[in-house]
Amino acid sequence: MNRNFEVELTTLCMIRNQKNEILVQERQKKDWPGWTFPGGHVEKNEGMETAMVRELLEETGLVLKPQLVGVAEWLNDCSGARELATLFIAETAAKLPEETEQPLFWVTEKEL
Predict the structure, then answer these.
(1) Domain extents for the chain?
(2) How far apart are the first and last CA of the chain?
(3) How far is residue 109's CA from residue 112's CA, in Å, rounded to a whole number?
(4) Percentage of the chain modeled with pLDDT above 70
(5) In the predicted model, is pLDDT for residue 26 greater than 80?
(6) Residue 101's closest CA among 49, 39, 21?
């Protein structure tokens, strides 16, 4: 039995503000449009939490202390690779920067 297979490691973080709103970003990729939480891929020799902190800074301009809340996995329909995502939560009272990689905005739970 071959136990060697490709695994793509990613991170996602649900961030709440003082109004209990949730931060989402609008993906600009044609092959993956829509809303998502900030996050991204884990680099070689990088831990999951370190990757999450880095991705949050890159995508939101925020320096946060995310807390691990879970793990999700699925098979990528296109590549056949196994996807493994670590899921984090964080809170902030900080303002978002005016310019970010992708549009960011606050929504209520109901709007999700």
Answers:
(1) 7-107
(2) 42
(3) 5
(4) 100
(5) yes
(6) 39
